[in-house]
Give the backbone structure.
Amino acid sequence: MMQHSQTGDAALVLFSGGQDSATCLAWALARYPHVETIGFRYGQRHAVEMECREPVRHALASDRLGEDHVVDLAATIGGLGQTAMTADIAIAMQDSGLPNTFVPGRNLLFLTCAAAIAYRRGLRRIVTGVCETDYSGYPDCRDDTIKAMQLALNLGMERRFVLETPLMWRDKAATWALAYDLGGMALVDVIREQTHTCYLGNRTDRHAWGFGCGTCPACLLRAQGWDRWVAGRDPLLREST
């Protein structure tokens, strides 16, 4: 892979195939003339999300959308211990106050790998859908963590990366609203039908907000956000959802 000179208007989006990252991809495509994507296989129970990536990329395709990169971290993350995100373990809260879906260091590894790809591709902006407003308490989703990672990556790679977090201060209702603002009901429908969020990998049960078990923490956040967004819409628009 060739190393390219870094450009300020090119972006790499961490794209899992879920609601948040799909919204971030649409956000980046609306802002930057060249956007690439990166996804990660890490032994996740909901590996079906990886199958959702290409249909979403196809639905959002434009002359701005560039190469897709997939990195296999299954052996790395799997070797660090099992969690309810990577093994058939009941989802529960731990004594630490965090759910056992928390994979220690996951987002830090993702950002490090993304920065390594961005370094060689000459991509300055790295876009991630982490959020500190509506989330499960994961410490590697916090704004302070992202700012610290940006500093560490810039120092460690001698580059001027900008870590973009368009959802950091948006709850899930606001994330649905952002998707609507970016692409109207067409984009909202892509997210409902094509993306995957459910931790259990359920693509059988269909709800107003999309597919999922409806009971895991990810489904609950997505469903509650959908309900708040729909309830707050103009009555005429509400009828179309």
In short: The chain has a mean pLDDT of 87. Helices lie at 19-29, 48-59, 74-78, 106-121, 143-157, 172-194, 217-231, 235-238. The longest helix spans residues 172-194. The first strand starts at residue 7 and ends at 14.
